[in-house]
Specification:
By secondary structure, the protein is an alpha+beta fold. It has helices spanning about 1-10, 60-75, 105-115, 130-140; strands at about 20-25, 30-35, 40-45, 45-50, 75-80, 95-100, 120. The chain is globular, with a radius of gyration of 17 Å.
Length: about 150
């Protein structure tokens, strides 16, 4: 019985209860979230925001994408959700998650719908069709990055 209990503790994921508070917004698709006693870097599944230029020149609209994520998520309590067909982490070790806001909205979808980011198309995930519809609507309405012809 003790061996079984020890196995369950060791086998449990590091962030079993994936509820936390967004402490920092790194950019339009990456957050730092306090989960329990740790800070985890979370990459929003399905969101392809303009890069802030950490290692190369910043992409157009990077500041707007980051501001959008800050406005929606910073200091908010969130719930993280894994995608059943996506890896748990990306190649940089970041958690790949859907991030649910306190009012029930999905942050990933909100950022795309606001025109602050494009849909990530390199990987498969269950909400891909939903996100593509948000992007189509944002393009049609010329929201955010779609207000300019630079992203068409």
């Amino acid at each position: 019985m003790v061996a079984l209990a020890l196995f369950l503790v060791v086998a449990a994921p590091a962030f079993a209860d994936e509820r936390g508070v967004v402490k920092w917004v790194i950019d339009g698709d990456t957050l730092r979230v306090r989960l329990g006693g740790r800070i985890a870097t979370v990459r929003l599944i399905g969101v392809d925001a303009p890069e802030t230029g950490h290692y190369r020149q910043a992409e157009p609209f990077h500041a707007q994408a980051t501001a959008c994520a800050v406005r929606l998520a910073k200091r908010r309590r969130v719930r993280l959700e894994r995608d059943p067909i996506t890896d748990d982490r990306d190649k940089y070790g970041r958690l790949l998650r859907y991030v649910w806001l306190p009012d029930g909205r999905l942050l990933n979808a909100e950022i795309i719908a606001a025109g602050c980011a494009k849909v990530m198309r390199r990987f498969e995930y269950v909400r891909q069709d939903e996100f593509r519809e948000h992007e189509r609507r944002a393009r049609r309405e010329k929201k955010g990055i779609w207000a300019s012809s630079r992203h068409d």
